[in-house]
Write a structure and sequence with these properties.
single chain; about 290 residues; alpha/beta; 8-stranded mixed sheet
Length: about 290
């Protein structure tokens, strides 16, 4: 199906009927940009995006989740419009940011859902800080594989778009995420292009690409024993067309986590929450709310 056969969509049309706000949390070390929906008093749910991504990865999921949770989709440090440290970013740095966000929100415990890098961070956080975690969703997560071809492709597409944030290069980076390239709309391209056009983005991209360096990646990866140590109930979401790895990897991860389970979404790539929103939301919310 060509893009001309699809109705026009945009980030703003996705949010048109959503009661939400965006802004910045000022914590001791970082400035964290967020999209927020839901009301205080409900359980806190953090939505964590992937490498070179941003909070808009979850614009299609805010409304449904705000019915049950106090939802915060954040830009990781080195990403979006959050602080951009001038040093290579490794998983402990993202964990520090998440900890500061929870402390700022006054949340002793939270639910976590992370896509790609976000899943990597969520899994490590659950391993190290079990007392602060209710449930986790690991969505096409990173951190368990080190495929040189995938890492090189991701590094090349990301750095090309950072060095020259032209329409076509930003589009190519976004198309890597999708099973159906037609879902990379003009509005989505422009949303990310504006981020990539920031004066400090090239430096920031070099810093957040540190995890594609084999040596740095190796010391941050999640071992089988790390996964076995996760106490929280965990849902691993994988897709049939994920570019980072096969469904078998998701099955392996789910099998290692003591309270882990696997859900497979058809005809989606690395962003199932965006490509197959209705299916994702149903599976996701059933797990997070304990209905399954």
């Amino acid at each position: 199906m060509s893009s001309t056969e699809r109705p026009y969509t945009s980030v703003w049309s996705d949010l048109a009927q959503v009661e939400f706000r965006q802004g910045f949390l000022e914590t001791p070390r970082y400035r964290t940009r967020y999209l927020h929906a839901g009301t205080p008093g409900k359980p806190v749910l953090l939505l964590l995006h992937g490498i070179t991504g941003h909070a808009e990865a979850y614009v299609r999921n805010l409304a449904s989740h705000a019915e049950h949770f106090d939802v915060w989709a954040i830009d990781f440090i080195g990403h979006g419009y959050s602080s951009k440290p001038e040093h290579p970013l490794e998983i402990p740095h993202y964990l520090d940011q998440v900890t500061e966000v929870l402390d700022h929100l006054g949340a002793e415990k939270a639910f976590f859902s992370g896509e790609s890098l976000g899943g990597w961070v969520a899994a490590r956080f659950a391993q190290l800080y079990p007392e602060r975690v209710e449930r986790i969703v690991l969505n096409t997560m990173g951190g368990t594989m080190a495929n040189p071809k995938v890492m090189e492709r991701l590094y090349t597409l990301s750095m090309q778009a950072a060095e020259d944030p032209s329409w076509e290069r930003v589009k190519a980076r976004l198309e890597w995420l999708m099973a159906d390239p037609a879902l990379v709309t003009d509005d989505l391209i422009r949303t990310r292009q504006a981020i990539f056009e920031q004066p400090d983005w090239l430096m920031a991209c070099r810093m957040n690409m540190a995890l594609q360096d084999p040596e740095i990646r190796a010391r941050n990866m999640l071992s089988d024993d790390d996964l076995r140590a996760i106490q929280a109930p965990a849902l691993v979401i994988w897709t049939t067309k994920d570019p980072s790895g096969p469904v078998d990897e998701g099955r392996r991860i789910a099998g290692l986590i003591p309270s882990g389970r696997l859900a497979v979404i058809e005809n989606a790539g690395h962003w199932p929450q965006y490509e197959q929103t209705e299916t994702f939301d149903r599976i996701h919310l059933d797990f997070l709310t304990g209905k399954d």
